[in-house]
From TrEMBL:
Keywords: Membrane, Transmembrane, Transmembrane helix
Transmembrane annotation, as ranges: 25-45, 57-81
PANTHER family: INNER MEMBRANE PROTEIN YBCI-RELATED
Protein name, UniProt field: Metal-dependent hydrolase
Source organism, top-level taxon: Bacteria
Keyword Transmembrane helix: yes
Pfam families the UniProt entry points to: YdjM (PF04307)
InterPro entries linked: YdjM-like (IPR007404)
Amino acid sequence: MTGKTHISCGFLIGTLAVNYYHPDIFTSITTVVLAVAGSMLPDICHTQSKIGRRFKLLSIIVRILFGHRTFTHSLLFTLLMALLLKTIHTPEVYFTAFIGGMASHIILDMLTPRGVKLLYPLPLSVKLPIQFKTGGMVDLSLATAFTFGGTYVIFREVINQWLNQFITLPF
Ligand SMILES: [Zn+2]
């Protein structure tokens, strides 16, 4: 999947987390940012990806050590990140957004013919029964659908909060 699809899916996951936990506005924005960051993180192994270009050196090191779509697209890496976030006492809403974003990335890549090394260090390529070409029509449609979905969830959340305020007015 393209970076756009991963980011838009992270955006949707972030808005859903906001919709579930109803945090304040600052926490809401941070939650969406963290979900998007989580959805980009696995591609740190790819020097030409959005996150790879930003953290070039780290990206090259990861690439040399593990190769593309291996360790950073595995259950092991997700588990290690989850443990790290728990160790530094990350609030639940941030934890859910970040790990949710990461999981969405791995699942989306499992929808491509190449699959991912989900069970790394086992050298097994895992993919879902249906696959789509990266950058193809389905990829683009997914990105659009996720963006619309996320925008809708935010819109509903804002309207709800506005209505709540209105209803609790003392008259
Ligand atoms: Zn990937």
